Write the structure tokens for this entry.
Amino acid sequence: MTDCSNGPVVASSYCIRALPPSFFYIPNFISAEEEVQLLNQIPSNRWVTLSHRRLQAHPSKLTATNTLLSASLPSFLSEPILGRFKKLEIFRATPHGAPNHVLLNEYKRGEGIMMHEDGAAYAPVVATVSLGTSIILNIVEKAESDLDSPTKKMEPDGDRGQEEGVEEPAKHRILQEPRSLLITTGKGYTEFLHGIADLERDENLGPDTIVNWELLGNPEQFESGINERGTRISLTYRDVLRVSNAGSRILGPGKR
């Protein structure tokens, strides 16, 4: 079992002990009311439709040089979430001390994404809030994977390079409940691949097969060993390393 006492600032009580001390899971990070408010405020005209999912990038997509044009995150993605991130000191050690980019991914029943890594455009800290329904995140160490496969290379905004390829079996499975927060840092970011199988239901769920079972907010819901999937939206917060002030000069302060 992993010793989380030497991990990041995030409380060790949230550490997924079956993994290296760089994965943290917090159930009920937001309330049911806050979840509804978030879902209702997602702009319908910002979705980009791919073959297996939809996505939005806020405040904007990265440029071809992996640069973010400086702009504020929209208010519905800022509070109360960013205030809670600050209290947990999740992004304390990143260059900007806070996330400056959010990628929204919508997965309908039966949709997923190939195993991939997020890459060097971001600081090695990711905080993902889940909305809607539960889903299984599969992870595998890079050392046990084919690193030369082009299906492992994720574009900065997640919109290319992940729609084809042969899925690999997962070594570890993380169950992400609605309203939960999953934090990935350090080696968890740099030495692991992650993906979501395109299934209509997740099976064989239990304390021996789900690495964060002891941290779940409602494990009784999965006593049957099955999770029937619905529509799930993830809010992935990251700190883009390269930021240009050109966006502020063109759009004006606080414009998006």
